[in-house]
């Protein structure tokens, strides 16, 4: 009897997300080296300095030249890579070995030499002395080794193939051959001009990506990740397969702002994967759902991962317009994953969690809802036309204000108000005497008001609340984690600069679109299909950033030449670049979560690809019919009902295609039903009213057949079980 009572009490225990740990996030970034003592302090100092440097430049502008700014970003990143990442995983190193200390020192000395000689007289004249060339060669080799360590062998192999293409162009047949190989010219362009390593990808990493990674790191330290998971569990956790649906929603929230699909998969997966397994999902399926949910966050505004910032440079659109164009496809993508999860739950009769065991959504919002305000501020500043880095800076100021004050106001209201007053006075004084932006004072004032309002409201209605303490320790961890998370992007963007430099130097950027169009015979669908294959192959094992840079330079121009709008062409390659990030056998998020799921990483990667493939046809849809992208050039061309119709048919097409992948709707498909579902999904790609009607008719027929089959099966079994949640 006592045992039954105890069991009942355990079932009543509230299920909520745990706090994230910095150790899990560090492990997620791919390093198994444990460092202690003065070497750990060295890593901490460099990481904090890099984060503070980028925070300052985002708010107040550069204090050095543009090239020196990029070099500071690159050199600090490479030094940290050699200090943090061993030459290979599995060595179990407890310290930084001597040769990695030498390589880090070499980066500092040689990199500083190259940086300081950017304005040397001979360099400005387009020539190099022997010392300049030797330093350039050493830096390229160090970069390639750092990329191998932090990103993996695939990016190194692709970089070496491109370098070989540059030097062996004389031996290749037309139209791929060229006679532009020159060793000195190669080193000069790669290291001393904006054509190569110091090109657009590294510039985007330094100017846009890092500051948003910092925003995400601080937000995680405030406990926002826990709040998002709690809200997601409350919203969908009690439905069929509830924990998996909560994983999709919660990981989508965090993935849209974290900037790291790997770290996001681990921090949210630590809680959601065990819950998914608890209700009946297989280990590899649980891991795959988390992988797909976390990676697809790169498609979801407001941050959209690093590749979206590159779109600012490769297209004529503002970041605000990119967000507007991406929002509907991103929502449809997440609907596809949720529908996939639902069918999986129906197939295996997996139920949700008891509603009474879940944290109240209202309670979560009343306790920590103030953390959503800085995200709203971020979107506001971007949409209001501020520069992207200024918008992120102002949002960080507000986020730090609410993070610092919330706990202190709750513990000692008077002391908290005093701290708020000091912050406001200092910021206004800096504005008055040193010209600081007035927006800084305004953000501090708004953050203070929000915190005071929440605390007074909580006290008035006796709401139990324990805001996450955010002090010097938490700020330090946030600054360090931001630098750690940025290392993959820094190495990938710098290496991508080599690839783009070679593409431009050899003339491949101009000839490849013509080659593709000629091969496809001016058939857009064929070009799109080849682009899909190219994305999956090029992106095998590469981060989305590198994949996008290559495809935006080589493939997107071919689509544009065939009449595809610029935005649609670049979103097309971005979407399949994200999907390629989940392509096995090299699927970094899958390797990160497989340990949590206790599943094979390859099989987990296959499952991640499967759950991400629900929206596989969506890019074809928005390229053929750009209504759902809300392009500025389409403004006023379509009525509201045409826009709703386009979104509705795209949704139905996705729902049909998900059932094709699952081979199941209400019961398992028979072969002709599978063909019927596939036909319905494919018909929606073509943008015409008659094709939409045919697609809807096919889907309605399929739905009717399956409802009748389901009822027949239920009658025969004598169990009229509910099919949907």
UniProtKB/TrEMBL annotation:
**Any transmembrane segments, and where?**
36-56, 68-85, 97-116, 122-144, 151-168, 197-219, 322-343, 388-406, 413-434, 440-457, 486-505, 525-551, 558-578, 613-631, 643-664, 684-708
Which residue windows are coiled coil?
none
The keyword Phosphoprotein belongs to this UniProt entry's keyword annotation: no
User: Basic and acidic residues: which segments have biased composition?
Assistant: 1-15
Annotated stretches, region: Disordered = 1-26
* InterPro entries recorded: DctM, TRAP_DctM-Dct_fused
The UniProt keywords, alphabetically, are:
Membrane, Transmembrane, Transmembrane helix
Keyword Membrane recorded? yes
Domain TRAP C4-dicarboxylate transport system permease DctM subunit, which positions?
Answer: 138-629
Taxonomically, the superkingdom here is Bacteria
- Residue spans with biased composition (Low complexity)? 16-26
Query: What's the protein called, per UniProt?
Result: TRAP transporter, 4TM/12TM fusion protein
């Amino acid at each position: 009897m006592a045992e039954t009572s105890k069991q009942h009490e355990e079932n009543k225990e509230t299920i909520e997300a745990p706090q994230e740990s910095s150790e899990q996030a560090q492990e997620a970034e791919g390093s198994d080296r444990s460092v202690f003592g003065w070497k750990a302090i060295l890593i901490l100092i460099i990481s904090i300095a890099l984060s503070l440097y980028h925070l300052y430049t985002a708010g107040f502008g550069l204090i050095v030249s543009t090239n020196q700014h990029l070099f500071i970003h690159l050199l600090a990143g490479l030094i940290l890579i050699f200090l943090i990442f061993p030459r290979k995983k599995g060595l179990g190193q407890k310290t930084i070995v001597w040769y990695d200390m030498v390589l880090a020192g070499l980066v500092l000395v040689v990199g500083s030499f190259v940086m300081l000689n950017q304005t040397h007289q001979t360099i400005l004249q387009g020539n190099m002395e022997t010392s300049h060339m030797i330093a350039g060669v050493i830096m390229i080799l160090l970069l390639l080794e750092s990329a191998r360590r932090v990103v993996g062998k695939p990016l190194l192999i692709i970089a070496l193939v491109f370098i070989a293409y540059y030097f062996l162009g004389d031996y290749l047949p037309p139209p791929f051959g060229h006679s532009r190989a020159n060793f000195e010219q190669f080193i000069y362009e790669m290291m001393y001009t904006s054509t190569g390593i110091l090109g657009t990808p590294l510039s985007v990493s330094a100017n846009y990506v890092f500051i948003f990674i910092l925003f995400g790191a601080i937000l995680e330290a405030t406990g926002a990740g826990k709040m998002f998971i709690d809200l997601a569990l409350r919203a969908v956790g009690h439905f069929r397969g509830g924990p998996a649906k909560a994983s999709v929603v919660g990981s989508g929230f965090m993935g849209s702002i974290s900037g790291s699909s790997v770290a996001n998969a681990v921090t949210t997966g630590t809680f959601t994967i065990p819950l998914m397994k608890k209700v009946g999902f297989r280990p590899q399926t649980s891991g795959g759902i988390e992988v797909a949910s976390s990676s697809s966050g790169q498609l979801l505004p407001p941050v959209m991962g690093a590749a979206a910032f590159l779109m600012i440079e490769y297209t004529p659109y503002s970041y605000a317009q990119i967000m507007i164009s991406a929002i509907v496809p991103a929502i449809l993508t997440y609907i596809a994953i949720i529908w996939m999860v639902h069918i999986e739950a129906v197939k295996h009769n997996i139920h949700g969690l008891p509603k009474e065991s879940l944290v109240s959504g209202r309670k979560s919002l009343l306790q920590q809802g103030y953390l959503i305000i800085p995200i709203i501020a971020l979107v506001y500043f971007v949409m209001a036309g501020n520069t992207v880095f200024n918008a992120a800076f102002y949002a960080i100021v507000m986020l730090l204000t609410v993070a610092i004050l919330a706990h202190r106001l709750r513990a000692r209201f008077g002391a908290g108000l005093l701290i708020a007053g000091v912050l406001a006075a200092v910021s206004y004084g800096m504005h008055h005497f040193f010209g600081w932006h007035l927006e800084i004072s305004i953000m501090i004032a708004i953050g203070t008001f929000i915190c005071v309002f929440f605390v007074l409201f909580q006290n008035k209605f006796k709401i139990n609340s324990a805001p996450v303490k955010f002090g010097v320790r938490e700020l330090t961890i946030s600054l360090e984690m931001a630098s750690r998370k940025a290392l993959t992007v820094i190495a990938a963007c710098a290496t991508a600069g080599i690839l783009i430099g070679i593409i431009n130097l050899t003339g491949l950027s101009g000839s490849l679109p013509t080659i593709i169009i000629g091969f496809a015979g001016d058939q857009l669908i064929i070009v799109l299909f080849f682009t899909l294959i190219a994305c999956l192959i090029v992106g095998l094992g590469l981060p989305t950033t590198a994949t996008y840079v290559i495809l935006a330079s080589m493939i997107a121009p071919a689509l544009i030449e065939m009449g595809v709008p610029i935005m649609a062409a670049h979103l097309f390659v971005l979407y399949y670049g994200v999907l390629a990030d989940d392509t096995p056998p090299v699927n970094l998020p899958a390797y990160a979560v497989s340990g949590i799921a206790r599943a094979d990483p390859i099989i987990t990667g296959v499952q991640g690809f499967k759950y991400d493939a629900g929206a596989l046809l969506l890019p074809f849809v928005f390229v053929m019919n750009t209504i759902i992208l809300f392009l500025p050039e389409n403004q006023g061309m379509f009525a509201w009902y045409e826009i709703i119709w386009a979104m509705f048919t795209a949704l139905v097409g996705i729902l049909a295609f998900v059932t094709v992948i699952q081979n199941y709707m209400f019961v398992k498909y028979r072969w002709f039903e599978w063909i019927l579902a596939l036909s319905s999904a494919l018909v929606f790609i073509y943008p015409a009213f008659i094709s939409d009607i045919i697609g809807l008719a096919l889907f309605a027929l399929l739905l009717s057949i399956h409802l009748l089959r389901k009822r027949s099966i239920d009658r025969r079994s004598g169990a009229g079980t509910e099919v949907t949640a």
